[in-house]
Amino acid sequence: MSSYPDLHLYINGEWRKAANDLPVLNPATEEEIGRLPHADKSDLDDALAAAETGFKVWSKVPPVERANVLLKAAAIMRERQEEIATAITAEHGKPLAQARLEVIRGCEFFEWDAGEATRTYGRVIPSAQGVRYIVHHQPIGTVAAFSPWNFPMSQPCRKVAGAIASGCSIILKAAEETPAGALHIARALHDAGLPPGVLNLVFGTPAEISDYLIKNDQVRLVAFTGSTAVGKHLTTLAAQHMTPVLMELGGHAPVIVCEDTDVEAAAISGAFRKMRNAGQVCTSPTRFFVHADIFDKYTEAFVRRAAETVVGNGVDPGVEMGPLANDRRVEALAGLVEDAVAQGAELRTGGNRLGGKGYFFEPTVLANVPDAARVMQEEPFGPLAIINPVTSLDDGIEKANSVPYGLAAYGFTNRADYVDRMVEGIEAGNVSINTLEASLPETPFGGVKSSGYGREGGTEGLHNYMITKNVIHSFSIV
User: Fold this and answer.
1) d(CA 12, CA 48)
2) What residues pair up with 35 in beta bridges, in sequence order?
3) Contact 133/124 with Cβ under 8 angstroms?
4) How far apart are CA 96 and CA 255, in angstroms?
5) First-to-final CA distance of the chain
6) Taking a C-beta distance cutoff of 8 angstroms, is the pair 407, 456 a contact?
7) Per-residue pLDDT tens digits for 63-93
8) Are 72 and 193 in contact (CB under 8 A)?
9) Which residues are catalytic?
10) What's the chain's average pLDDT?
């Protein structure tokens, strides 16, 4: 696409190329659309030095001024929505309408955290006369952040906004498959007047960059969104230096559908949401546990809507689902389907790669999937739904909690007592009832168990980017 940007690193307020670069491919056509520079150690050293200087400047800037830069950058990104969305569709494949919404979501993270920058209140603790106990919140320092490919704009926005609102500097290693979103974020902040060194954007071999940055004592926080396996590895690296982490990791979201719900509406909603972003969402509803009394009716409606999903190039009108990110995802999904069917699962629709060009995969529904199937424990991260019957709400909650993940979970019911039991009993950082929305800028987002540590968004969102300092002030020498 002609609007795809010329890709650069962004270090110390300047754009630069690199000695090595690799192609960026359009997953719908498998055509090269850009060349991505890969940072070497000298680039990373420059980024670290720039971040150190940038932090010394930015941490002293009043919160209201930091907020103004974020708000100005958000306004710039809103003005450039179409340009950014078109680039995201080209590199990721998602429908253009979804890419446009993602740009707005990224702006909303900036706008929310801009407000929170002015509300990082401390407190005064009651004390004896002549003494004051005061709690201060201060920016933690340089942040090494790593964002994934599935949301090229909103995911890096989350981390950049949190760090900058808190007064930190940040080195962002964005995904090599989908770099344009992060590039546009850096452009907007540059044009909004962010001082040099506060944001540095690099690309390259993930393992090499993470290893180099995390081992540097200047890095005071590691913020990562991605797979549980990689998150555990980065946490291990960080622990060797006592560096705190913010980890938003994988999920395998359950959906409990109770017998009293509107069956047709719940099924259509589930099928539609499952195929959003081609199922490549850490909060994507995947394991549907449906009460036996409504199982057949629900499954029929779900399968019908899933099979009707319009799959194609994200720039084409009417397309609801684009391709997967790469060929590896196609192979992974095909393997999960094959294993499940071999274990006795029923393939109700889909299960195959689509077309000869591009990484397209059919919307897929498996029913009555045995617990022994790999897909019951492994997050498919694609347009694959599992629908299994349960005999009661307690049965559904037990099955929902049967995996090591706990990022998002959903329930459909009209009974208040069922709502209370799900909220109390489901092991997840985010529980949504009668909606499949799990994350908003104004709400805290994060997981439990193997789905991560810490929270982004909401009033809690800046806490990870700050230290808490206790001050005891005696008015006389004691």
Assistant:
1) 9
2) 23
3) yes
4) 28
5) 71
6) no
7) 999 999 999 999 999 999 999 999 999 999 9
8) yes
9) 248, 282
10) 97
What global pTM score does this model have?
A: 0.95
Distance CA 249, CA 182 (A): 20
9-249+451-470 CATH fold: Aldehyde Dehydrogenase; Chain A, domain 1 (3.40.605)
**Cβ–Cβ < 8 Å for 51, 199:** no
Domain residue extents for the chain: 9-249+451-470, 253-441
Q: What are 223's two structure tokens?
A: 């913020």
Tokens encoding 470 = 């206790």
Between CA 444 and CA 116 the distance in angstroms is 13
CB 184 within 8 A of CB 172: no
DSSP state of 5: P
Q: Return the CATH class of domain 253-441.
A: alpha beta
CA-to-CA distance for 222 and 171, rounded, in angstroms? 10
Give the confidence band of 1 by pLDDT, cuts at 50, 70, 90: very low
R_g (Cα) of the chain, nearest Å: 23
pLDDT for residue 356: 82
Please identify which residue in the block is written with the tokens 């389907």: 337
